[in-house]
Amino acid sequence: MRQNRERYLIMETVLSGIRPTGNLHIGNYFGAVKNFIKMQEEHNCFFFIADFHSLTTHPIPGDLHGHVKTVLAEYLATGLDPEKATIYVQSDVPEIPEMYLLFNMNAYIGELERTTTFKEKIRKQPDNVNAGLLTYPVLMATDILIHKANKVPVGKDQEQNLEMARKFAKRFNHMYNTDLFPEPSAYNFGEELVKIPGLDGSGKMGKSEGNAIYLVDAPKEIEKKVMRAVTDSGPTAKNQDKPEAIQNLFTLLKVVSSTDTYNYFDEKYNNCEIRYGDLKKQLTKDIIAFTNPFREKILEISANDAYLHKVVTQGAEKARESASKTLKEVRNVIGFRKF
Ligand code: TRP
Description:
two-stranded parallel sheet, mainly alpha, three-stranded parallel sheet, 5 strands
């Protein structure tokens, strides 16, 4: 009993926001989702769909609605568990916009203009440089600090935004002479983080790169994608280093196939006996065996609106409980009406 309590007390809070942009692919799975699933066992986890953030690109309502549902269904299908983690939709928590307003008062235009994500966005969407883009890091800091999260699993591209969250936490603490906010740090997966390459010869798998295999892809679709993958005319000498396109196929084989299968093709390659057609056939088979259970689960959950509704309603309730507690402390420290 006492031990349990202590365990709870030292349990760190982990939080991550997911932008509702399309389907999960194998790269997302091995690069992030798999670790989320592990983390929910050991930490107090908050995972949410960042639909406020997605408004900076002005999605049409039907798309926004569809994407939020897809992301939710796919994360649940891969194993995020609403009994273990708090899973919610950002716009279901009205404490977030309130705290965002408060944090905006302590965020300076100069520092916001200097963030790389902002500069990148103005380059990408010069016709829509809205104030929400500028204050994107303030909203993200709010997401994190409102639950007093200690650890935030983020990719390289989000490190600067996390740094801003630390800055806002420190600034607030200093300004009001309090220790209300812990400083959040990056959750480091170290060796466990696997970068999954695309099938087009170079670079990593990505939605915008158009080289992704989605968990929800039908077997035929996967076959088409793998059979199209870039190769070369084969090794010309024994034990040659693999060029990037070939190495990429082996990297995929490593995550979805058995060690025996991997070793078999590796040996064939090293002996200059490899037939890429065989490798691709095997890879297709193993990818389908890996993704198909997910695909079935995704289709099942997507068709169950009642379940999805229950998950986010329960998630919002838990998230609001935690958020309103922090907001109350913040309002008190700031000096709002007490009479
Ligand atoms: N900005 C993150 C992204 O683009 C999404 C996000 C929003 C987030 N709020 C967050 C991530 C809070 C971690 C913590 O991927």
